[in-house]
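Posting for a labmate who doesn't have an account.
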Amino acid sequence: MICSSENLKRFICPSFLQGRTLITVGGKSGGHVSANPPTPGFATGQQLLDAGQISQQVFDDTEFYCSFGVCFLPVLELTAVNYGPTFKPEFVNAFEIGMKNTMMGGRLTLNAGAFYYDYSNYQVSQIRDRTAVNENFDAKVWGAEFSAIFEPVDRLRFNANVGYLKTRIGKGAKSIDPMNRTLGNPDYQVFKPWVQLPSNCVAPTQVVENWYKNYDFAQYVWNVCGGLNGLLNGLFGPQLKDPATGQLYDVANYPEINGGAGFYTDLGGKELPNSPRWTVNLGAEYTIPFDGDWSATVRGDGYWQAKSWARVYNLNPYDRLRDWTNFNISLRVDGPDDLSIEAYVKNVFNSTPITDAFLNSDDSGLTTNVFTLDPRIIGFSIAKKF
């Protein structure tokens, strides 16, 4: 924030060429009151009983047989996860300094500000296993903002805003990227162990190849990275062999793949999402008075934003958001008694840059939702204050 912000004028820059430093501490609630959603699964016996779908007798019988490992009710388990049931609260130490300068008898205003934000447990939302979860990363954000308003002659005004931003995720931060679960390691493969699991899975290549070559029924992969337990599992238990050991495959023998979720990506030093290094906004307007209390104002403005990343993984080129621009023009006629008539064109050149994106669960084909600028909009409005 700089002095031009209305809520800071009273404290930082109440008069000509005055500047002060602002230090703040803030936070955003986390796992104390917020929890990541549970992974999808079948209803438990208790949930079915509470919903009136089964009787108390059926529930008691189910619990009895479960003690022998042959539960009637199926239970869908997903062990290939790398996020916790809750996420931590976010805190920030913010350091800001700014000033406002008025020159040339009020015809030129120059504002400048710099900031440094030190985040603990910065919260990042992602789509995982068909639901939205939050992960925490320490991060630092710093930059500067400059703005100017220049009126060289009466009724002609220019404005400019330039922003610089740099972000960095702290050392030791890590996360598993659904787009790059194996980190290119040929000894491991991403595959779908069972059709109803809400996530893909990573397993040793030799185990996957052994399944493709020697088995033709899905029962042998029910429990590779979590799967279907219950009566079916009790009758058709896991029989998938690990060629490396000659024993039944156990994901615990491969701790590097984190229960089958994949290899961790080192996020230390990477940039935060939606953090363009540079932003520039330029505008100009000219007001023409006519017929007494009437005036017409012609205005044009343009915005440019440098390239940025859509995700914390900074995976090139998938996560790269290209730089983009936008131009608007308008003609506003102001009359007596607060009457205003305006015609405008937004996104003059009808450009459609991708301004943001988020990735869906990888078991649904890694589909990506993208956000673009609105198409060219031509509008007209009449306003009257009473």
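Reply:
Got it, the structure tokens are right above this. Residues 184-262 form one domain.
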